[in-house]
Each structure stands twice: as C-alpha cells, then as structure tokens.
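User: Can you help me understand a structure? I only have the sequence.
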Amino acid sequence: MLNLSAYVAHNALVEPARAKAQMWRLVIGVILIAGVFLLINQFLHQTLFTFLGAQTYAALTGADGSISQISMVFLLFSFGVLTLGVGVALKVAHARGLGEVLGNWQLCRQQFWAVLTILFLLNVVVLVLPPWDLGAPLVRNVQTVPWLIMLPFALLAIMVQVSAEEILFRGYLQQQLAARFRSPLVWLLVPSILFGWGHYRPEEAGENAQLIVLWSLAFGVLMADLTARAGTLGPAIAVHFMNNVVAILFISMPDSLSGLSLYLSPFTMADTQEVRAWLPVDFAMMVVSWLAARLALRR
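Assistant: Let's start by predicting it. Here is the structure, written out as tokens:
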C-alpha cells in the first residue's frame, strides 16, 4: 500500500492544474508539445543547414555519424525546445504558466541544492571505493584539456536536457494526471511508462533494450515519488542531473551518446552478459540515490 500521507506536499503542486484537468485538454497538450518540438527542430536544422553548409552542419549536429563533443552539446541543448513545447501546451490547453510545474521557486531551488550536495558526496564515496573499473580497464575517450574546456557548456547542456524531461514527465504529465485521477498509481506509473518507452533503443542495446526500458521505468517511478514527497521538481532534477553527469561526462558506454565522456566502459550496451551483470549494481545505485535525496529532504 502506498503511504498517501507522504504525498501531502504533492497536493499544493497539483492544485493549479485542477481548474482545467479534463482529459481532452491533456490530449491537446501532448499534441501541441509534439508539434512544437518537431516543427521548431525542423526549422532549426533547416536554418543551420542553409547558413552553415552541409559539412559544418553535419559536424555540428552529428548528421555525418560522428560522435563529437560539439554534436553532443548541440543534442542536449536541443531538449530546450521540449520545455518550450510544454510551455505552449500549458498556456493554450490549461491557461497555466510554465513556472507552476516547478512548484514554489524558492523551495524548488533549496531542495535542488540540498539533494545535489548529498548526491555529490555519495558519488565521491563511490568513486574512491573498490572496484575501480567495470571488469576491465576503462578506455580513454576525451583528453583532459579539451574535456575541461567543454565542461561548463556540457554541464549547462545536461541541465537543459534533464530539466526538460522532468518538466514534461514529472511536471506536466504527472500533475495533469494527478489533477484528474485520485489514484497515485495513475500519475506514478503512466508518465514513468512513457519515460521508459522513450529510452527504448534496440538498434544499440540489442537484447538488453527491454531491460534498459525497465530500468528507466523504475527511475521514473522513483522520481515521481520524490516529486510527490517534495512538492517541487527540484529534487528530481538534481537526481537526474547527477545521474546524467556521471553517465555522460565521466564513464559512458561506447554508443551514440559518448562524445563528451572522459572514459568509455569496456563493453557496449549490446553486450548482453556484461550489461546484465552491472544493471543490478546500477539499480542499487539508483535506489541509494533516491534514499539519499529523501534524507536530504528529511522525507
């Protein structure tokens, strides 16, 4: 049984969504988000192609198949269009402002930094404890100086990316569903299932694709729970940010998202046995991060 008393703070977060919580509005909102995202991205790419030329455009966006620091930063920043789409959907379909999905701004910011601080300390502890590799030596991907030069832009780009995803899934979708349905199972699971489905990459993960979807679904449920306990998106953004900083900037799998990583793992996402051996460890780290965030919030 879910302890609904732990979700009291969620009521204040959801309250602005109750006035216009009809399902047809949510459907229109989702269509608007998808439309804005696709149209603006199409316009942006066409404009860049026209003004930069085919070769520079391909290098910037990774359209030539390259995995570079620049193309990764561009990809992560492009998630800002998703936030814009959510803003349009909120305004048109629900007469709400984008800031409302974050919750009380001052509290959101305080909770973000409290959770980020404890997660930073947690990851430092994990870093200094054995084992110091993933079963085989890590592969150097980016040299230190170029990595440090790009680091500020990469951190900002990751913040844009994780904020966009949290605003969509734990913000817009979770809050609008919670305003319409009383059962937490609806607003905990539906956005998390969609979040997990968005991480389905069979072309890179092979037989592990479904397991990675399940991992993402579980992550979504924990972030939804954390948001409901906190009453703002701050903690979920902090956990998501720290998770992606580690996975994108420090140790990444050698796939299409590895351009910014200092090191590469000794196996790919499609290596069935190796990934399945490490997924329980990764899942345990996810749960520990969620518990650490709750400790920071005292909830």
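Now, to help you interpret it: The radius of gyration is 19 Å. The mean pLDDT is 92. Let me know which part you'd like to focus on.
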